[in-house]
Amino acid sequence: MAKAWLAKFSWEAVTAINAQLCETKNALHKPTSDGHEEARALWEANHSNEMSWEDAVLLCRKCHKIAPFCFFNGNTFAAISKIALKSADGLTVMDRHFLEAISAHIVAGTETPEERQQFRVLLEKVS
Questions:
Q1: N or C, which end of the chain is more exposed by having fewer CB within 10 Å?
Q2: Domain containing 44: what range?
Q3: Residue 1 located in a structural domain
Q4: Is a pLDDT exceeding 90 seen at residue 31?
């Protein structure tokens, strides 16, 4: 189902989430010189569009891989996916838990083939 999953996350919100994660871990919060503008432009061009949940997760993954911040890029975009998934309907508590975890692994690029298969099954339940 197409939905504007990430619309409420402006680039300023993305930056604030990263800043909070960095502060919690006493890490430097700073944009990278290589990836920040590229990730910002990609995010701003796409985050408010209607898209499938899979496309929303893949946008988060792309931005994570571009590495717009010095630290916690994966955690930042995984947190966004977790928050965004709260607006999904049609999921049991257990399905939501699994989809949150698998989505975070996809954002980080660490999903297993079994998780990818389970992700596809769960996508059919998301609305």
A1: C
A2: 11-123
A3: no
A4: yes
- Write down the pTM of the prediction: 0.96
> Each residue of 14-27: pLDDT tens digit?
999 999 999 999 99
Give the chain's length.
Answer: 127
Q: Is residue 5 part of a domain?
A: no
* Alpha helices (runs of H) in 50-92, residue ranges in sequence order: 53-66, 73-85
- HSE-CB at 41 with a 13 A cutoff on CA atoms is 6
Alpha helices per DSSP H over the chain: 11-24, 36-46, 53-66, 73-85, 93-108, 113-123
CA–CA–CA angle 34, 38, 79 (5° rounding) = 95
Within a domain: 99: yes
pLDDT confidence of residue 14: 98
Average pLDDT of 65-92? Answer: 96
What's the confidence (pLDDT) of residue 3?
Answer: 95
Question: Does a structural domain hold residue 2?
Answer: no
